Amino acid sequence: MTKSTATIIMVVLVIVTLPVFFITIPILIFSYNALVRKKNQVEFSFSGVDVMLKKRYDLIPNVVQSVQKIMTHESTLFEKITALRSKISDGLDTKERFGLENEMSQLLGQLSVTMENYPDIKSNENMMHLQRTLAEMEEQLSASRRAYNASVISFNNSVESIPSNIMAGFLEYKPKIYFEATEIERSTPQVGQLFK
Fold first, then answer.
1. Name one Pfam family in it (predicted).
2. Which helix (DSSP H) or strand (DSSP E) does residue 33 occupy?
């Protein structure tokens, strides 16, 4: 092969392969960066849920102590809340933790209904403040859960959609799980039963 033939072949190879690199490399970089941003957004959103769960975790002992002094006959509910609170820890996987947090939300809802039944408790200014704080915290937790689920849907769409699913497969990213309500929480509450 002569030098001129080799030069022609090299020029043709560069002309043919160079556009591929200028198209493929930016697409790969864009896909990678988009997936990383979405993964980080899911983790950030989960930390928002975690912050609210920690706030609730810290607030529950105060609520329980205040209410226990007034309502000794509702001690089983407080015992359940305290026992569940001790089960929730950082060592649990996401699905187990979400399940326990959903159960905690349900018990705290029962606590609110119980407090509604006793006007003497409601008239206590401290108790009303704690009840408002608890309701506000549950609203913030609900908003954090929605933000987390929005981040998860964006991430999961990228992990499962073409062409970003190729990069996600390469990075071994798997779809994240949503924070979902349990079957009990989806059913219509029987308010009459709660007042018994």
1. LemA
2. helix 3-70
38 pLDDT more than 90: yes
What pLDDT, on the 0 to 100 scale, is given for residue 161?
A: 87
149 dihedral zone (left: phi>0; alpha: psi -120 to 50; beta): alpha
CB 45 within 8 A of CB 150: yes
Q: Tokens 């929605």 map to which residue?
A: 146
Query: What is the second-level CATH architecture of the domain 41-141+180-194?
Result: Up-down Bundle (1.20)
Structure tokens, 80: 């359940």
Instruction: Tell me the CA distances in angstroms from 146 to 10, 102, 152, one per residue in order.
Output: 56, 14, 10
Instruction: Kindly report the average pLDDT of the chain as a whole number.
Output: 77
**3-class DSSP state of 92:** coil
The domains of the chain are located at 41-141+180-194
pLDDT at residue 40 tops 90: yes
If we measure between CA atoms, which residue out of 165, 149, 146, 167 comes closest to residue 157? Answer: 165
Closest CA to 175 of 196, 146, 151, 191: 151
Percent of the chain scoring above 90 in pLDDT? 13
Q: State the residue for tokens 């006959």.
A: 73
